[in-house]
Amino acid sequence: MKPSVVVGAAIVRGGLLLAQQRAYPAEAAGRWELPGGRVEAGESEPDALRRECAEELGVAVAVLGRVGADVPLPGGKVLRVFGAALADPVAEPRAVEHRAVRWFAAAELPAVDWLPADRALVPALLDLVSAADSG
Ligand SMILES: Nc1nc2c([nH]c(=O)n2[C@H]2C[C@H](O)[C@@H](COP(=O)(O)OP(=O)(O)OP(=O)(O)O)O2)c(=O)[nH]1
């Protein structure tokens, strides 16, 4: 059986990466992750990402290419991350379901208290943000 996929969005603007801080469950509360969530039956991965960003952040995004490799999650799921851009470049994402959202500079990414799966993606996220910075 194919593993079920949790999609994550690496949204970059002006050389900064957007992350969100979980409010629950207790063991994840206060830790940071990328916007996203489970792909539902019959939904494409980009559709799931657009839906989750609208639900969680109140913004529309354009989905770009893959970032990093799949990261295994507990329960046989995988975390699959895509680059993304705000459809409206001056929109302000807000924490609808989360404790907070924040834009991080590349230099801050290693010290963020990421969920374990997201921690594995920090090198790929650094590459992405640095490339955006110099371009
Ligand atoms: N969205 C998201 N989930 C992540 C990341 N890293 C990570 O380990 N996860 C885990 C946390 C959750 O166990 C699972 C995603 O579930 P979720 O609660 O965000 O997604 P969902 O909207 O489909 O869930 P549900 O509450 O509707 O059941 O993946 C990440 O960067 N983004």
Beta-strand content: 35-45%
CATH architecture annotation: Alpha-Beta Complex
Largest sheet: 7 strands, mixed
Low-confidence stretches: none
Count every helix, treating DSSP H or I runs of 4 or more residues as helices: 3
Query: What is Rg?
Result: 14 Å
Order of helices and strands: EEEEHEEEHH
Distance from first to last alpha carbon: 40 Å
- Give the overall shape: globular
Question: Secondary-structure blueprint of this entry?
Answer:
Blueprint: E1 5-13, E2 16-21, E3 32-33, E4 36-38, H1 45-57, E5 61-73, E6 77-86, E7 100-105, H2 116-119, H3 122-134
Parallel strand pairs: 1-6
Antiparallel strand pairs: 1-2, 1-4, 2-3, 2-7, 5-6
Give a verbal description of the structure:
The structure is a single chain. The protein is α+β, with helices and mostly antiparallel strands and 135 residues long. It has a single domain (5-134), classed as Nucleoside Triphosphate Pyrophosphohydrolase. The chain has helices at 45-57, 116-119, 122-134; strands at 5-13, 16-21, 32-33, 36-38, 61-73, 77-86, 100-105. Strands 1, 2, 3, 4, 5, 6 and 7 form a seven-stranded mixed beta sheet that branches. A hairpin with a 3-residue loop joins β5 (61-73) and β6 (77-86). It is globular, with a radius of gyration of 14 Å. The model has no long low-confidence stretch (mean pLDDT 96). 8-OXO-2'-deoxyguanosine-5'-triphosphate (8DG) binds at residues 6, 8, 33-34, 36-38, 73, 79, 115, 117-118. 8-OXO-2'-deoxyguanosine-5'-triphosphate (8DG) is lined by residues 6, 8, 33-34, 36-38, 73, 79, 115, 117-118.
